[in-house]
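B., you asked whether I could sanity-check this one before it goes into the benchmark set. Here's the sequence:
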Amino acid sequence: MRDLIYTALGYVLMLAAIIGVFKLFKSHHRAVIEANDHSMEPEYRNGSHSIDSSVRRVSDLTLDTAVAYYLPGQPDQYRVAWVVAKEGQRVKLVFANGQGKIFVDGQPSQAKVLGFTINSPEFIVPRGCVYVVASAPENDSLNFGPLPMRNIRGSFK
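And here's what the prediction gave me:
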């Protein structure tokens, strides 16, 4: 009987250790960033935000996920935008009747976009990149094109 109790206690301790390691691992994938622009207000205001920094691959993201990223060449300048297209998807920008629309794979995106006045030929988002758009497009893919995943710091949950 004593052996059975010790064996059961050993399994309980092992399970507790596994759960503890999992929680520790998960807690290391949380980060606080300072969003220093107003491009996503009112959804995400300027200031500190907790993000999931475990995002490493395009497949880790879903469309319409808000992500924190830094501008190419400016790793200390975080921005916030929605992912509207992922690698391999076709994107086309259309400005007509005073309104800009983004089409992804021939379908209109639900992204809330203000202030773009360009038309573009359809293009395919390159491998390892996403197309991000903010509410007020100042520093998003409308200006610099597809964003490499290495520039994404994490996603908002």
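One thing to flag: The chain has a mean pLDDT of 75. Otherwise nothing jumped out at me.
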